[in-house]
Amino acid sequence: MEKDQKKTGIALLIIGLLYFCLMIPANQTGAKTLQMLSIFEVDEYAQYEHVLRMLAPGETPYQSIRNFFVYLHYFYGYPFYFFSAILLFPLKLLSGSNWPADTQTIVCWLRQTVSVLPMIAAAGMLVWMTTRFKRRYFSIGLFVFLLTLPGVILNNFWWHPDSLSVFFITLVFFFLDRDQLRFGRNFRAAAAACGVAVGIKYAGLYFAAAIPVYLVIGSVARKITLKQMILHGLVFVMILMAFVVISNPLLLLPQERAEIIRTQQLQFEQTGTGIFVNRHSAFFENGNLPADIRRYYAETWYFVFALGSLIAGFFRSRTEKIRSAVLLAYLITALTVILLAASRRLHYYLPVVLPLFAILPTLFQTSSQKNKKLFDTLWCVILLLQGIPNLLLSVSLFRTQLAREAVSPAIQLYDQVQREILPQITLPEDRMLRVFRDWKIYFPEQAGMAVQMNWEMASLELIQEWDPDLILLEQENIRMFADVDVVKQAVDPEAMQKMHAFYADASQDSLPGYRRVLENHFAVVFEKIE
């Protein structure tokens, strides 16, 4: 690496460090208690107890080891929980025996190290592949642009597998870029990284067409024979499968493997059809990309320029031709999978948008000194036209994140219940107050209270079985599930009918044995009638 490249690398490292530190205040919010996680990021709430159990000592050394490996939450691969637990271990050593009580510090650390840090590293690798750090301002501009995409900023605000997934996907591109049709150790390293990516969240399967394309290019360029192409393809698949298993060792245990497969089948069904109701919808809106993509990533015109850069790569150096061909095959596969899914959450697009946007500067590269200044100016204009709105929105998202506890309707509801309702309830000294809440209702567990929440939502049978003293329901759920049409759209009509009956009664204040005692725009509270 030349001196100027090293200086650019150091500049990006400093920017990355500042960016990491800037995320800390926002990532300290929304995690004062375990239950607070559910009102802001319900996925974090579902994941949290599992990573804590991994580090919990068992009664025997075997039980401690089992706790670490049998993580039980098989919606995501073991690498996500493995890295999370490993990164938490120093925190556990420093905090002492009562370390799980400090939810805010633990969750902030997980958000920073498992979400923010891998994204910084992925952006750095993408910039290197595009600019080789040879054009300092190009490199810095692209690095800052990628990290300030509002979709990336939102992903930084939670502890989730997507940044790790993007990191290992980027590693695959990085190693293929280093390999340059030599089909040596970098090609095998790409296979290993792809295996881990598959093991995290299946996004590594987006390379299903890209790797064959890379092999065919090698054969057409006469770097390998047809026989060698087939052999290298088999080696890639074997290494990939080996690293899927290495990164998910529970696949070797029949009982756990069966549970992992069952959970993943459920995951595919929910992604393909929806969790409660079918949600298939058109992707393009009047010839434009969906509004959320245009708001949190870039306007349609910017995607057009990015695709233009991808095509331009086919007319440049061999390195850029290879990168463009592999990336195009990868993007076609990724977008096909995403567009066929019923659930299209913003973070699903990260593995698509980041590699695509990183290639944009190739459209403005020229060997002509005469045109260089013009092309540099065009690149700056394009970057600023999209980058400034992105930056302004990202700052707004950051400020909203800082203030979210103060303005949270869930926390305000809890404070109101504490002031106005709890003092009016009298119970026998030997009985706890029983509370049922919807997912995003805030009601922390505390002495003298038993708080219950059901991932499958509520039904009259469930409420009769639990017999809560208070029921707290979200208005959004009441509106959705009280609508009679929801049964027709349901993935499971029988289960939905029970949910519909319960929420329809709640909407009419006719829950058997309960009366409405508090209502606002966010929630409704029902109290048991004695």
Structure keywords:
530 residues; five-stranded mixed β-sheet
Return Rg in Å: 26 Å
Please give the count of helices: 23
| Strand content range | under 5%
Helix and strand composition category: mainly alpha
| Large-scale geometry | globular
User: What's the total number of strands?
Assistant: 5
Task: Name the average pLDDT.
Answer: 91
Write structural notes for this entry.
It contains 23 helices and five strands. It is mainly alpha-helical. The protein has two domains: about 5-255 and about 290-385, no CATH class; about 410-530. Strands 2-1-3-5-4 form a five-stranded mixed sheet. The protein is globular.
Present the secondary structure layout.
Layout: H1 3-27, H2 34-40, H3 42-54, H4 61-69, H5 78-95, H6 103-131, H7 136-147, H8 150-156, H9 162-179, H10 185-201, H11 210-220, H12 226-247, H13 254-273, H14 291-296, H15 300-312, H16 318-340, H17 350-358, H18 369-407, H19 409-420, E1 433-437, E2 449-452, H20 460-466, E3 470-474, H21 475-482, H22 485-488, H23 493-507, E4 514-519, E5 523-528
Helix pairs in contact: 1-6, 1-7, 1-18, 2-3, 3-5, 5-6, 6-7, 6-9, 7-18, 9-10, 10-12, 11-12, 11-16, 16-17, 21-23
Task: Give a brief rundown of this model.
With 530 residues, this protein is mainly α.
